[in-house]
C-alpha cells in the first residue's frame, strides 16, 4: 500500500513537472506575431516618440498614424533630433537586416537605443512584422540639426536646468 502511495505521488509530481514544462515551452515557442509587435510598439514606448501627437493625446492616435515619424524635435547638447519614420526605415530593410541593425544601432539622444538592443530576437521580429503590416508611409521627418544651429521647427527643449535657489 505504502509503495503505491509513493509511486502515485512520484507519478503526480512527474506529471506536474511535465505539464509545467509543456506550458512553458509552448509559450516561449510562440511565433513572433503581428499582435505582439503592436503590443511592443505601445508598451515599449516607440509610439511615445515615433508617432506624432501620441504623448500629448495620451495615446489617442489611430493606428494608421503609428510610427510615421515625428516633426516635433528634441533639442539638447547633441543638437536637435527627430524620431524617424519607422515604416519608411523598415520598408527598406528585410527582417534579418533589421535584427542586425537593432542590435548595433547607436543614435543621438533621446532615442533609447540601449533598450532596443536588449529586445529579445523574437520581439525584434514581431515589431518588424507589425510595422511592415501597416500601410506604407513615406513621410520624411526634418533633418538632424547640429548643436551650433537653431532648429526652425517646433521642438522640446531637453537642456537640464540647475536647481533654483
Ligand atoms: C524618447 C523618445 C524616443 C523613444 C521612446 C524611442 N525613440 Fe527611436 N528615435 C528617437 C529619436 C529622436 C531618433 C533619432 C535619433 C538621431 O537622429 O540620432 C530615433 C531613432 C530611432 C532609430 C534609428 C532610425 C534611423 O533612421 O536610423 C530606430 C531604429 C528607432 N529609433 C527605433 C525605436 C523603437 C523600436 C522604439 C521603441 C522600442 C523607439 N525607437 C523609442 C526617439 C525615440
Any ligands, ions or cofactors bound here, and which?
heme C
Poorly predicted regions are: 6-28
Q: Which class do the helix and strand fractions yield?
A: mainly alpha
**Helicity range of the residues?**
40-55%
Any idea how many domains? Answer: 1
* Biggest sheet layout: 3 strands, mixed
Total of helices: 7
The portion of residues forming beta strands comes to 5-15%
The order of strands across the largest sheet is: 2-1-3
Order of helices and strands: HHHEEHHHHE
Mean pLDDT: 87
**Approximate shape:** globular
Tally of DSSP β-strands: 3
Alpha carbon gap, first and last residue: 81 Å
Please compute the radius of gyration using only Cα atoms.
23 Å
Task: Describe it.
The chain has 165 residues and is mostly helical. The protein has seven helices and three strands, in the order αααββααααβ. The protein has a three-stranded mixed beta sheet with strand order 2-1-3, with no helix packed on it. Residues 6-28 have low confidence and may be disordered. The structure holds heme C (HEC). Residues 44-46, 48-50, 74, 81-84, 86, 89, 105, 107-108, 110-112, 116, 127, 144 line the site of heme C (HEC). Heme C is lined by residues 44-46, 48-50, 74, 81-84, 86, 89, 105, 107-108, 110-112, 116, 127, 144.
